[in-house]
Amino acid sequence: LLQFRTQQQTFDMGGVRIGGKPGVRPAVLIGTIFYHGQKILIDENRGEFRQDEAERLIREQEEYAEKTGNPCMFDVVGATPEAMRRNLEYMVRTTKAPLLIDGTTTDVRLAGLEYVAQAGVQNRVIYNSIQPEVADEELAAIHKAGVESALILTYYMQDFTGTGRVHCVKELLPRCQQAGVKKLMVDTCVLDLASYGQALSAMFDIKDELGLPVGGGVHNALAMWRGLKTKMGPHAKDPCMAAVVAATVAVGADFVLYGPVEDAKFVFPAAAMVDTALSQLAMERGDSPDDGHPRYRVG
Amino acid sequence: MPDLDKLFQAIRTGKNKDAVALTKEAIDAKVPPGDVLGAMVRAMDDVGQRFQRNEAFVPEMLIAARAMKESMALLEPSLVAAGIKPLAKAVIGTVQGDLHDIGKNLVAMMWKGANFDVVDLGTNVTPQKFVDAAKQHQPQLVGLSALLTTTMPAIKTTVDALRSAGVSAVKIVIGGAPVTQAYADEVGADGYAPDAASAVEVARKLLPKAA
């Protein structure tokens, strides 16, 4: 179970180490903040939000990370260039955790790059995301900003299968390297419940073949599940959220983009539980779980 | 005589290699190309209907569309030789400022699956580019997609640009996460499609000759 032919790569991204053998290094859990529709937003286009509530959510994720041993990052969304700059500026001064620049359009992401270059915080951020159809100009902007960490999203319409996703990463790797991106994490692209299965399969295959850190935006599996609320009832979402995270960690994911940061309270215990179980496998194979692993904290 | 039901099943289940082989078999056996095409379109309709009933998922639509695309490439010369043309021409794109293309791509695939000739302008398409494409390709249908509330206003700008450019005979269908029927009415679009499968139904209603 969960043994790979290729040596696993690990990267330090903004002070958080990601990648490696399952059971040795716990999954990094990434909550999204300032997403469209989030209650803390006052004016999402201008980057205005309730700071007290934003800080409460940030601290809550950090506390769960501390309590469980699963490191955390924040996926920072911006609706406009102005909002991205303001959201990032706030996050940089409010948390020490790594930040993903998650603009919904290229101009928003580029504004994020400009901000981090000006603020000199390139080492704290991860560009989210590089996709198969990324333009050379966007890669040049990443290079110019000096950002060395990025997430590849395997949104590969030409061959939307598990193996297609592996092929997609292989195609993008040389372009990422040319753009100075040295540290990569691969999101295997979850669009709905069924594609979540493909994404899980691709996570194993990419680790097996390329050794890169893998994970996914598993929240999409639930967000696109129309019957979750209408057929299963209002109480089904939270346990399913925990389950989808647990299943992802169980197949060896190195990170989980779990969606709204408000779900930290369901997500961290679920991931820590599975990481603890996997740590026993690692130990039986002669590997030692990292200091601070959930194994040593959750009991 | 090749069994077109097998071709229907191969496309419906996204078995692209089987679909291509069965298409070749049908062409070699001189099955009327219109009948072969009919089996393919029925397969895509089936996928679309199952998607609407929440019985099929996005990957199934994508692999079925791939099987149809590969089979169509083989069938195309026979259709041309038989004088069988696409039922309608459509231009589609994601509006200016928006780079999201999942929904737009699904609609384009389903329209192709319904035997429409689809010109895909991609993402972040300016109103002028839509106008230029409408003049160049003379479509009966234009599809506009936006995923974000921040880019949704570009739908109205594009509809206005198309109307004022004198391509008012074109039927405009809009869609995307924040888009509603009420918004479609407000901006003067001819149709609203809540999902890719509905986009085929809406198009067929707007263009009776394509039904």
Shape of chain A: globular
Please bin the fraction of helical residues of chain B: 55-70%
The N- and C-terminal alpha carbons of chain A lie at a distance of 24 Å
Q: How many helices of chain B does DSSP assign? A: 9
Arithmetic mean pLDDT of chain B: 92
Query: Helix/strand-derived class of chain A?
Result: alpha/beta
How many β-strand stretches of chain B? 5
Radius of gyration of chain A: 18 Å
Order of helices and strands of chain A: EEEEEHEHEHEHEHEHEHHHEH
Give the amount of beta strand of chain B, in percent: 5-15%
Shape of chain B: globular
Strand content of chain A: 15-25%
Oligomer: heterodimer
- Low-pLDDT residue intervals, each spanning 5 or more residues of chain A: none
- Count helical runs of chain A: 10
What is the mean predicted local confidence, pLDDT of chain A? 95
Structure, briefly:
The complex is a heterodimer of chains A (299) and B (211). By secondary structure, chain A is α/β, with parallel strands linked by helices. Chain A contains ten helices and twelve strands.
Keywords:
heterodimer, A: 299 residues, alpha/beta, two-stranded antiparallel sheet, 10 helices, 45% helix, globular, B: 211 residues, five-stranded parallel β-sheet, 9 helices, 5 strands
